[in-house]
Amino acid sequence: MIGEQYLLLPGPTPVPERVVRAMSRPMVNHRGSEFKEILINVTEGIKQVYHTEHQVIIYPASGTGALEAAAVNFISPGDKVLAVSIGVFGDRFATIAREFGAQVEKLDFPWGEPTDPQVLRERLAQDIKQEIKAVLITHNETSTGVFNDLAAIRAAVGEHPALLMVDAVSGLAAVALKMDEWKLDVVVSGSQKAFMIPPGLSFLAFNDRALRIHQENKNHKYYWDVSAGLKYLEKGQNPYTPAISLYYGLEEALKMMLEEGLDNILIRHQNYREMVRAALKEMGLNLLAADGYASPALTSVIAPQGIGGNKIRQYMRERFNIVLAGGQQKLDDVIFRIGHLGYVRELDLLAVLAALEIALLNCGYPIELGKGLKKAQEYISSI
Amino acid sequence: MIGEQYLLLPGPTPVPERVVRAMSRPMVNHRGSEFKEILINVTEGIKQVYHTEHQVIIYPASGTGALEAAAVNFISPGDKVLAVSIGVFGDRFATIAREFGAQVEKLDFPWGEPTDPQVLRERLAQDIKQEIKAVLITHNETSTGVFNDLAAIRAAVGEHPALLMVDAVSGLAAVALKMDEWKLDVVVSGSQKAFMIPPGLSFLAFNDRALRIHQENKNHKYYWDVSAGLKYLEKGQNPYTPAISLYYGLEEALKMMLEEGLDNILIRHQNYREMVRAALKEMGLNLLAADGYASPALTSVIAPQGIGGNKIRQYMRERFNIVLAGGQQKLDDVIFRIGHLGYVRELDLLAVLAALEIALLNCGYPIELGKGLKKAQEYISSI
């Protein structure tokens, strides 16, 4: 099949040509002045994306690594932790905390729904002795395509002293997040999402309150130790060899993001959500996430009964070289997911929606070609 | 200054154009068939380089990450561990094991010398109750430019049941290592050395004996857990998002390595060592490592008294855009290090040696230009 693959996953996302070219530069000494300049630049850039003036450590690791780093730096063995979960990645954060010795209490919400801040508020109100040391929460749940309203979550935590620790791996820059304004204590993110670079870097941001708790932390750590990270950052270095080519890409991607404007990027992703959802609804499809908390980064579609998500994905892949994500765990074959995250154009989504209508028709779903697509066109035409 | 920088570090090493181009390919689904094929390919290729038929896990992390993985998968808290050290990286492996709860006994040798297998043999002979669970050792000590004879080390360990765990991050493929033949139980390596790709991937190989010990292991682990790694490897996946672009580079680099021939690569590096050492000796310089155990991957040069290594490095950098490594910790300014590892040509080394003579002369060291260089030319001419 001629032409490039359409990769519409909620990560890894397509990498812009500018970023690819930046990543092609020759290696430099990771203890030298060129790398120091890059490290300072990208650390400042990431802080802008996080809307924070606090600390950021960059790991040569994927997002799961920075989640582990959050657990081992800010949770001590035996600590009570309230892990809020609305899907696979909420569960993963809870599992990691438990593996490193936390007493984890899960607060689960049905898959496809966001966290109800009121339930969280009530649970924390019962913790009269303030034994809960941390609240873990997902910013954008990739497995369901639902985001949590972190400002409301912060309000629900209120004056409870638990650290608010956020997995923003797939959400940061695509879904609103203001670390300092919303008093988020620890925020994790990764490179292969809205940052538009290949996987292999992840980011751990934390404020002074978290840093003080880190200083008393009793978990074993070496690779993830933020004290070592901060010490070397002062010298413009990483404690061990950093993933240099990905830093080149990150520097260029941050430049692109700041050129586009962080607010514009959020609006762009909201528009993707709106056009995709309008089209899918018109096709008669049911969406897993209701309006109001559907993710701007991806859309989860409930596959028509008797067809299944995987058959549709296979058709899209074999006929059009379009890669969509499947459902995870209990949602396997129940849903398919369209990523509209990072370096994606309206044009790409129009093409994908057009192809999807064809796929549905040929998989035995009764549909009038062009009907859903027209809704997407109308939405684009209106903005 | 026009032209490319000469990067002569013991990692990161120059990246071949073929590898750069491979890394520029678009992203794919890390849970899809394209990635599965790459993962199977590179895992097989790495096994060939290790000379092993056992297991290899690839981490999105730098070499230090895979050292941590070795510690948390194969050493339990409270285990007695004998950490042999001949420099900075031997110390680092010991520190990591201690951080994760091992009772570490150091067996130190002077910096610039290799491990004396007889001393190791005698220490293990004293361990009548066989309480030592693991022996940690460095393959190629990057801080001093000395390699350990792992076949002799294996013979010294003899029938003692301790796991033999090797940090081969900077040595693998440049210095002989036969994992299965030498019964090395755990071997760690990294991408930014003889593998010729940018930093960001590391490799952990282990045999069945190590796997059985892993299954009883009591350390906390998630990101580094080899059980999860093996389980997903069967599906052609990584437990979490892999660093896709670096895999592309690794696949191409392995192709190049197998085309050149693994034995030829070892000989090439030995020739680099011989030509560089012949030239430096003729310049009247003292070398930290004596003949017989000097690393084929890098050469540590004792800076002339009153000049210091850093002044020479600065001259090389500013006048010629040649980057050499400095001494680490107590060797700072005492030595400088010339990396001749990975994608380096004889031509590059001739140019660097010629420049070094000029640097030495201009830093106040009496030298006849061309004298040392001639020895390198003669060596090349003779092979």
Protein traits:
Aspartate Aminotransferase, domain 1, alpha/beta, Aspartate Aminotransferase, domain 2, 14 strands, seven-stranded mixed beta sheet, 383 residues, 2 domains
How is this structure best described in words?
2 copies of one chain form a homodimer. With 383 residues, the first copy, chain A, is an alpha/beta fold. Chain A has 2 domains: 6-11 and 261-382, Aspartate Aminotransferase, domain 1, CATH 3.90.1150; 17-259, Type I PLP-dependent aspartate aminotransferase-like (Major domain) (Aspartate Aminotransferase, domain 2, 3-Layer(aba) Sandwich), CATH 3.40.640.10. Helix content of chain A is 43%, strand content 17%. Chain A is built from 13 helices and 14 strands. In chain A, the strands form 3 sheets. Chain A has a 7-stranded mixed sheet with strand order 2-10-9-8-5-3-4, sandwiched between helices. The first copy, chain A, has a 5-stranded mixed sheet with strand order 1-13-14-12-11. In chain A, strands 6-7 form a two-stranded antiparallel ribbon. In chain A, a hairpin with a 4-residue loop joins strand 6 and strand 7 (146-147). In chain A, helix 1 packs antiparallel against helix 9 (244-260), helix 10 packs antiparallel against helix 13 and helix 12 (346-362) packs antiparallel against helix 13. Chain A is globular and about 60 Å long. The two termini of chain A are 34 Å apart. The mean pLDDT of chain A is 97. Chains A and B meet through helix 3, helix 4, helix 9 and strand 13 of A and helix 3, helix 4, helix 9 and strand 13 of B. Chains A, B: Soluble hydrogenase catalyzes both production and consumption of hydrogen from suitable artificial electron donors or acceptors. This subunit catalyzes the tritium-exchange activity. Chains A, B: Substrate binds at residue 337.
